[in-house]
Amino acid sequence: MTVRDGSIVVAVDGSDNALVATRWAAIAAERENLPLDVVCAFENPPVVPTQAFLDGLRDEARERVDEAAALAEKVAPGLNVAASIVEARPALLLRALSSRAHYLVVGSRGRGGVTGLLLGSVSTYVVAHGDCPVVVVPPAETAEPPAGAVVVGLDGSQVAHKAAVEAFRQAQLLKTSLVAVHTYSALSGEVIGGRHMPPRQQLHDEAVELVTAQLGDLREQYPDVNVDTVLSVDKPAQSILDQAKDAPLVVLGNRGRGGFRGLLLGSTCQSVLHVAPCPVMVVHTQ
Fold this sequence. Notes:
Elements: E1 8-11, H1 16-32, E2 36-42, H2 51-75, E3 81-87, H3 90-97, E4 103-107, H4 121-129, E5 134-137, E6 150-153, H5 158-174, E7 178-183, E8 191-192, E9 195-196, H6 200-221, E10 227-232, H7 236-243, E11 250-253, H8 267-275, E12 280-283
Parallel strand pairs: 1-2, 1-4, 2-3, 4-5, 6-7, 6-11, 7-10, 11-12
Antiparallel strand pairs: 5-12, 8-9
């Protein structure tokens, strides 16, 4: 298949959530003046299928992708939309496409989702392994983005800086403000493992210094974006979710400073993805 370099790519599978993701992707593509590629992958069964069965799989995939493409064109008239079907494993296909896309858009759960599982296996894989930013759209996303601020999580890491860059860019595109969230330890003045933790004021001052350093150049680069900073001793995921209630978008790095080597998706990112009320964009360290 041919996916255009620098396009926004949305994956569809016939689920309602995929159509919600398509609507979000179409609006984003129109806002950024980028083409939209709608893709649908289908897999052959493990047994040797008949030609009629294969034809049925292709026809079903074509119906899904055409439905999504029609929705995108209705949402954003004049948008440059292309639709493709591919015989491939969805997760592996999207990972390959992430090397060429501006970013990928997926629904949080697809048709194969298990009841009670809040993030589907394909979404989880692509978020962890994608090269470009990946946007995970929840089923309840509204047609028009909420009027609140874009939320970004900061921890001083390199990938958090990349998330901040994208968050400023998205806030400017959405003509809204930005909330930068940073958490620090509540264990001030205590002895942990023989080590005396710094007093609370020192931890707070270090947090202010970290956030100021991570946002400094970006404030100058995006002077029209108003920035509020939230410093908290709560758990990072909860602090981010508290600010995301009216947000049009949350932007996170796939791993933070506390991530274990070899762990491709950090605990904070996973926690936010599972329950965020709005789309979550995950940027990567590559």
